[in-house]
Amino acid sequence: MNVARLNFSHGDYEEHGKRIQTIRQASQETGKNVAILLDTKGPEIRTGNLKEEPIELVQGNKITLTTEEILGDANRISVTYQNLPKDVQVGSTILIDDGLIGLRVDSINETDIECTIVNGGAIKSKKGVNVPGVKIALPGITEKDANDIRFGIEQDVDFIAASFVRKASDVLEIRELLEHHNATHIQIIPKIENQEGVENLDEIIEVSDGLMVARGDLGVEIPAEEVPIAQKEMIKKCNLAGKPVITATMMLDSMQRNPRPTRAESSDVANAVFDGSDAVMLSGETAAGKYPVEAVQTMARIAERTEQALQYREIFLHRANALQVTVTEAISQAVANAALELEAKAIITATESGFTARMVSKYRPESPIIAVTKTERMMRRLSLVWGVHPVLRGHASTTDELFEQAVESSLKTGAVSLGDIVIITAGVPVGSSGSTNLMKVHQIGEMIGKGTGIGSQNITGNVCSASSAEEALNKMTDGAILVARSTDKDYMPAIEKASALITELGGITSHAAVVAVSLGIPVIVGVERALDLMKDGMEVSVYPEVGVIYSGRARVL
């Protein structure tokens, strides 16, 4: 699990506060980076309370929806939205309880809407009401949403999932609230749940930090056959914008009751990954189901297996051709392409705002993206981005320090090892957000010595360390790298077996240098404490052109 979603349609602040505390404690104890997403109730329409429940609505019977506050029965039910009679027309369809109850509008007055029951069934109090194809004049956020967001700011949540977003101004209303409370670090993820939201998708993405494909209410508001098409379109547009997209609702719904998913559900999760989702989300499966842990494990297994089957080269070529080239896009493309061609172990991005990691992620490189950042808050924010593994680093003031810290932090995670090829990308000047303009191909190795090198051939081999010519002759094996304080003619039998030569003393006219050149083997002279640092049998890599010795196998590219 990378992100914990808290549904503010239910529960009070005391409950949610305890859950947040539990999540953070578990995150700390396990060492796992887990972000928190606050899901608002949103400006929804619901039925009022009933005298007795459930009541049975019979197909063909009449029923009146009223804006008056009453205790409802089988003839008359109240609704929470006062302007509903103004927004609907005769012939409009009204759906209740996720579309289980279907009504057709017959007549309207100032407070009442008389309907015929098209699809009947049992109904309880406070069920959701949808009006497909009708633009409803609800506010962007309600007073409850605003209070919930203020609570989220106090709790330092990472994301706001804004329910029932219909247009860009709905998002900007939330952003204004965050700015007023100095909480612009909290990211806004609109939930697209109605036809108006689908129609205004481009403007919503432009002002948002990501998107949630909320298929539950969306499947009620638009025809069921349109939902998969809308899902693919939303994911595609978010991918091209480099913004994370979550596919949600009923992904493993049967696991609320059963320990295993249906075949259709497994395919649904896999296809969401194939479509390009950054994240897939569970709802009732973990909130109220019998098998919450198994549901998470199942979803993770499906996602991981699907990612193994992705055609990474095809994805890269398709996206590279589809995007306009800016400096950032060019660097991100180059990084993804280099990682693909060199089969890099990882891509290491040094990022202040998360921008660099997101821009690389949009090309879906097969190599994991290790995002090295300075704050835990940024680590949590990046937990939603595809393929990104955030890690902490210290302060760096130069690019050399930045690269050194980035590699060191990556090594600590175990994701990369000495000798691995990695692609490093960052922005210069160091500390500037959104300025991805630098890329380096690097092979990780620990430098253990430096001197003056002669030769062009890089050699990796095992050390033969000798304090005297006699010791060298006794210990030397064919192809070993001879390490000595200095050499003279007595060392010749040992040198002739060596693949490379390292000495503590001497310059380019020394015996070691002259002999190595004549034999055509690389040499590095003037390496301080070489005998102390390099012991018998130790594997080292010699790079004469730069005069550097690394432990293990390592290349400078």
Taking all Cα atoms into account, the compactness measure Rg is 32 Å
**Strand elements, count:** 29
Strand content: 15-25%
Quickly give the CATH architecture of the largest domain.
Alpha-Beta Barrel
pLDDT < 50 stretches: none
Query: What's the CATH C level of the largest domain?
Result: Alpha Beta
Shape: elongated
* Biggest sheet character: 8 strands, mixed
Determine the N-to-C terminus distance.
37 Å
Task: Supply the number of structural domains.
Answer: 4
Mean pLDDT: 91
Strand order of the largest sheet: 22-29-28-24-25-26-27-23
Quickly give the structural class.
alpha/beta
The percent of residues in helical segments reads 25-40%
Query: CATH fold name of the largest domain, please?
Result: TIM Barrel
Counted by DSSP, the helix tally is 20
Assigned CATH superfamily of the largest domain: Phosphoenolpyruvate-binding domains
Cofactor: K(+); Mg(2+)
Domain Pyruvate kinase C-terminal: 329-442
Catalytic activity: pyruvate + ATP = phosphoenolpyruvate + ADP + H(+)
Domain Pyruvate kinase barrel: 1-296
